[in-house]
């Protein structure tokens, strides 16, 4: 997958799961303040990303540091790079 | 044609007079009811504690329910309140209620339920309403925004252990479109974790009565309908709460559409 395809899959998966407006989904958007997610949603977000990309990330410390959509993009892209 | 036009104009005039009368009555009456309630509550609560020997939080929840009933009674000259399929609510069995959210008035309409022992799961801002805050804390309402998830879960478990129920507005905010918004997961996870039934409730009409952004009440009909209880045992796997949340939202959206089609029948 290209970088753009990965980002598109992240955004479309999150938009579908959390019924987000695509216009609001900019890389700078704070997932709590701008996109309206709560702490439990981050658990669901992990499940959604694991389902979309077929990897395990729930134990990863870096997930707790995610604040913006851009953080999610970078996190998933780095995981994709580590994939064999 | 001219006759019809005049008829329509007089109908509009009567409606505006009726709205004015409603607001001239409702606001002072509700303020007075709240003021009197706050004044006599310490006495009645003390008497209740001594003679009924109920836990303080449960007794407080009964007072909240009675207070809500008072609101409905005061509104009743202008608003028709309908309860539908309430036989689905078993008052002797703890459960989680989830209800759609259109109006500030929705919370008061929960007094239409046959169950009084209800703990509301709310955001932090209602706890800052100084005239309600102490009562909410006494009733052990859940501040889901200001507490950790573990605290919410543990407090919910203790409510169920005492025979009570927990009520969530899964949208988190009042809808400004008149349509059901996206659901948050909290209520669904609580029900699954505790192994209690989840009962969706659909409320219709409060979006006409007092939607967000409007200050004046309008007359109308408010209907609260209980849907079939859902056993949560089948949703215990890791994605269960997501599945349950989606299924319930779908069912509530369809139910609300059916209720709106049946308006006035």
Q: What does the model show?
A:
The complex is a heterodimer of chains A (84) and B (265). Chain A is an all-alpha fold and 84 residues long. Chain A has three helices and no strands. In chain A, helix 1 (3-18) crosses helix 2 (39-53). The longest helix of chain A has 16 residues, at 3-18. Chain A is globular and about 35 Å long. The two termini of chain A are 13 Å apart. Chain B has 265 residues and is an alpha/beta fold. Chain B has one domain (2-261): Glycerol-3-phosphate (1)-acyltransferase (3-Layer(aba) Sandwich). Chain B is 50% helix and 14% strand. Chain B contains eight helices and seven strands; from the N terminus they run H-H-E-E-H-E-H-E-H-E-H-E-H-E-H. A seven-stranded mixed beta sheet of chain B has the order 1-7-6-2-5-3-4, with helices on both faces. The A-B interface holds A 17-19, 36, 38-41, 43-44, 47 and B 145, 149, 172, 181-182, 184-186, 189, 238-239, 241-242.
Supply the CATH class of chain B: Alpha Beta
Sheet-strand content of chain A, in percent, reads: under 5%
Helix content percent band of chain B:
40-55%
**Number of helices, counting only DSSP H or I runs of 4 residues or more of chain B:** 8
> Ends of chain B: how far apart?
28 Å
Shape of chain A: globular
Secondary-structure class of chain A: mainly alpha
| Poorly predicted sequence stretches spanning 5 or more consecutive residues of chain A | none
Number of strands of chain A: 0
Please identify the oligomeric state.
Answer: heterodimer
Number of helices of chain A: 3
Number of beta-strand segments of chain B: 7
Biggest interchain interface, per-side counts = A-B, 11 and 13 residues
SSE layout and pairing:
The complex is a heterodimer of chains A (about 80) and B (about 260).
Chain A: H1 3-18, H2 39-53, H3 69-82
Helix pairs in contact in A: 1-2, 1-3
Chain B: H1 2-52, H2 56-75, E1 79-84, E2 95-99, H3 106-109, E3 118-122, H4 130-138, E4 142-143, H5 149-161, E5 165-168, H6 186-194, E6 197-204, H7 206-209, E7 220-226, H8 240-261
Parallel strand pairs in B: 1-7, 2-5, 2-6, 3-4, 3-5
Antiparallel strand pairs in B: 6-7
């Amino acid at each position: 997958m290209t970088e753009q395809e990965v980002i598109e899959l992240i955004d479309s998966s999150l938009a579908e799961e959390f019924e987000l407006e695509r216009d609001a989904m900019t890389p700078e958007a704070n997932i709590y303040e701008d996109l309206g997610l709560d702490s439990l949603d981050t658990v669901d977000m992990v499940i959604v990303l694991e389902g979309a990309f077929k990897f395990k990330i729930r134990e990863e410390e870096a997930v707790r540091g995610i604040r913006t959509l851009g953080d999610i993009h970078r996190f998933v892209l780095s995981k994709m790079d580590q994939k064999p | 044609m001219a006759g019809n036009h005049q008829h329509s104009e007089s109908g509009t005039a009567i409606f505006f007079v009726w709205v004015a009368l409603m607001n001239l009555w409702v606001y002072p009456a509700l303020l007075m009811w709240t003021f009197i309630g706050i004044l006599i509550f310490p006495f009645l609560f003390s008497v209740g504690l001594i003679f009924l020997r109920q836990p303080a939080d449960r007794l407080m929840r009964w007072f909240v329910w009675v207070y809500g009933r008072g609101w409905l009674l005061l509104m009743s000259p202008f608003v028709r309140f309908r309860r539908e399929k309430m036989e689905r609510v078993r008052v002797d069995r703890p459960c989680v209620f989830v209800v759609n959210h259109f109006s500030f008035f929705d919370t008061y309409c929960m007094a239409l339920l046959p169950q009084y022992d209800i703990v509301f799961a709310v955001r932090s801002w209602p706890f800052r309403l100084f005239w309600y805050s102490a009562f909410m804390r006494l009733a052990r309402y859940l501040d889901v925004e200001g507490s950790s998830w573990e605290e919410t879960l543990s407090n919910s478990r203790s409510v169920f252990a005492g025979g009570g129920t927990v009520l969530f507005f899964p949208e988190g905010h009042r809808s400004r479109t008149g349509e059901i918004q996206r659901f948050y997961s909290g209520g669904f996870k609580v029900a699954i974790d505790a192994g209690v039934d989840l009962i969706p409730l659909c409320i219709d009409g409060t979006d006409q009565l007092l939607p967000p952004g409007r200050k004046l009440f309008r007359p109308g009909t408010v209907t609260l309908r209980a849907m079939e209880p859902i056993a949560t045992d089948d949703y215990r796997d890791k994605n269960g709460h997501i599945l349950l949340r989606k299924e319930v939202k779908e069912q509530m959206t369809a139910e609300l559409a059916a209720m709106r089609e049946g308006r006035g029948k």
